[in-house]
Amino acid sequence: MPAEARPEQRVVYLRDRDDGQRMKDVVYVHPPSYKGAEFPNPAGLPRPVVAGLPFPWVTPMGTSGPLFREVERVKAELCRRLWGCQVCGNDLDTTAWVALERPEEGSPVITSSAIHRTCLRLAVRHCPVLGNAANGYTFTEVFEDDIATAAGEHNHERAPKARWYLRPVAETSQPDRPRAFLSLPQVLDGS
């Protein structure tokens, strides 16, 4: 049973949806409104726009507005476990995209979960972290088994307790395929 909700919060239940989206019975607490009104954040595209920015599915809404630097951990975990997109919340295709610290196998994955190619372009255009070329992030297309979770230390109090990393292609279900690493300009150009 979830912890008691504070008066300014409500308990939200994610269930399998009528439109075929895979959502499990997960319970979490979410702030109830934005500017005094209920704020729906359903899965899908186009994303709702708040304060001129697209509102990612895993981003929490605080009582004073979006918490763009935060991630709803339950939604992010749901995306990781069920192969869903952190930006739109829909199921991913056979392949998806992740951002990496370095362009190499074994590199830590810095996105909370994988992302559709279209959603990745949206994210790098609007996210000051992913879209900052000075961070040196690289992007790669992955299959679900390309990503592995490793228990370990994390450097930030809001980071997930387990880190993701890019499994070497030789250890995946398709060990003979080439792996490409794209730069930020290549993602923005649609290369």
In short:
By secondary structure, this protein is α+β, with helices and mostly antiparallel strands. The chain contains 3 helices and 13 strands, in the order E-E-E-E-E-E-E-E-H-E-E-H-E-E-E-H. It has helices at 73-82, 117-126, 184-189; strands at 10-14, 26-30, 33-34, 37-38, 49-50, 53-54, 61-62, 65-66, 95-100, 108-109, 138-143, 147-151, 162-166.
SSE topology sketch:
Layout: E1 10-14, E2 26-30, E3 33-34, E4 37-38, E5 49-50, E6 53-54, E7 61-62, E8 65-66, H1 73-82, E9 95-100, E10 108-109, H2 117-126, E11 138-143, E12 147-151, E13 162-166, H3 184-189
Antiparallel strand pairs: 1-2, 3-4, 5-6, 7-8, 9-11, 10-13, 12-13
Description:
The protein contains three helices and 13 strands, in the order E-E-E-E-E-E-E-E-H-E-E-H-E-E-E-H. With 191 residues, the protein is of the alpha+beta class. The N terminus is likely disordered.
